[in-house]
Amino acid sequence: MEFETRAIHEGQEPDPATGAIITPIYQTSTYVQDAVGEHKGYDYSRVANPTRTALQEALASLEGADHGIAFSSGLGATTTLMHLVDPGQRVVLIADVYGGVYRMTSQVYEPKGYLFDYVPADEFPNLRDHLDDNTRMVWIESPSNPLLNVVDIRAAAEAAHDAGAIVVVDNTFATPYLQQPLSLGADVVVHSTTKYLGGHSDTVGGFAATNDPTIAERLYFLQKSLGAVPGPFDCWLVLRGIKTLAVRMRQHCENAMAVALWLERHGNVERVLYPGLPSHPSHTIAAHQMRDFGGMVSFLAESEQHAIDLVARTKLFQLAESLGGVESLIEVPAKMTHASTASAPFAAPRNLVRLSVGIEAVQDLIADLEHALAPAAVRSSSS
Ligand SMILES: *Cc1c(COP(=O)(O)O)cnc(C)c1O
Predict the structure, then answer these.
(1) Mean pLDDT of the region 284-296
(2) Which of 31, 217, 250, 256 has its C-alpha lying 20 to 30 A from 377's C-alpha?
């Protein structure tokens, strides 16, 4: 079955007890056993919960995976995956990784003796030079947050596998609608379901999927043993979100492309970063690897102060962290989502503005940006 159909039906049979068409929220911590150890596959909700099972099956299907494991947040998934690595072993990460992941690697795991190398996206064609016998994992975000760099996942996976490392791809920005990293050779795909999969800015969650039975078994074990599990209501919200993922993503992509083209023509913008623009350094690989270019657009304002001023002036683009909801958001990564990378050599540029382009009417979004970007004199005469 096609993606759109699986998003609505996979793992989501009508409730056998009542016929309810929507998977119930099994808001229960425990399950009655007929005799000691005799149960219907559920004994305690940290270990398994039927609403979570439905979500895991649906999302695994969308990623083309045999196994899906849901977590309490994207970082809950990340910290669990870091337990596939031991202290003293090396992890290579794309340099402009999500700020919260960098905070975790640099301030939580590095002090415990884990080794991390941060490789810039444009160095990924030479990834082999950055791997050694001790490299256990390569962590890719593509497109990356917030610079929207795209790396060739298939080439990176070949290099990593030759060096004996596994490849994890954070697919939060693309979603499985635009790209399925496991089909490109990745071993594990990871998500913040808080973003496009939930899609409505009303829940926090995470997810990982794999086709490797050994990794899957370890991740199910770590899910119940480390305990970063999502509640049933949060699983239900993501299940509801993914039913419309395909139509939402089509509109996000269409709107983002229109906004990016408009920004690129605008005089008060230094540079627009959107993989759909031929001017973007990753455009060729993005066009080859992804179905479309996604809903995130970043741009360099004229100065840090210009960035800070303009994000306070938009009205439809609300000033907030996070992304991937139906409503448009705007932020300054260096001050907000990526503040923890400030001292890193690859810190987000201080004049960078990141847009999560929503699915409102695009002419309203462009009018909002036009007003916010206009010089003060023009704004006061038109308002
Ligand atoms: C938000 C985000 C995360 C972290 O997810 P949470 O659900 O906030 O814990 C990880 N990776 C990327 C790319 C993100 O955008």
Answers:
(1) 98
(2) 256
Whether residues 90 and 237 share a domain: the answer is yes
Whole-angstrom Cα distance, residue 219 to residue 189?
Answer: 12
End of a domain among 242, 269, 294? 242
Last residue of a domain, one of 219, 242, 265: 242
Looking at the fold, whether 199 and 296 belong to one and the same domain comes out as no
The pTM of the whole model exceeds 0.90: yes
- Ligand 1 atom showing the smallest separation from residue 193 Cα: 7
Residue 40 binned pLDDT confidence (cut-offs 50, 70, 90) = very high
Cα-Cα-Cα-Cα dihedral sign, residues 256, 257, 258, 259: positive
Q: How many whole angstroms from 74 Cα to the centroid of ligand 1?
A: 5
Q: How far apart are CA 219 and CA 211, in angstroms?
A: 12
Query: Do both 285 and 350 map to the same domain?
Result: yes
206-210 β-sheet, strand order: 67-71, 206-210, 188-192, 166-170, 135-141, 90-94, 115-119
Pocket test for ligand 1, best of 98, 104, 202 (most atoms within 8 A of CB): 98
Q: What is the pLDDT of residue 159?
A: 98
Domain membership of residue 265 as a residue range: 245-382
pLDDT band at 381 (very low <50, low <70, confident <90, very high): low
Q: Calculate the average pLDDT of the chain.
A: 96
Please determine, for residue 376, whether its predicted confidence score (pLDDT) is greater than 80: no
Residue nearest to atom 6 of ligand 1 (CA): 74
6 noted as active-site residue: no
Nearest atom in ligand 1 to the alpha carbon of residue 75 is 9
Say if residue 269 is in the same domain as residue 200: no
Out of 31, 43, 46, 379, the active site residue is 46
Whether 46 is catalytic is: yes
pLDDT band at 22 (very low <50, low <70, confident <90, very high): very high
Length of the chain: 383
Cα(197) to centroid(ligand 1), Å? 12
Active site residue 98: yes
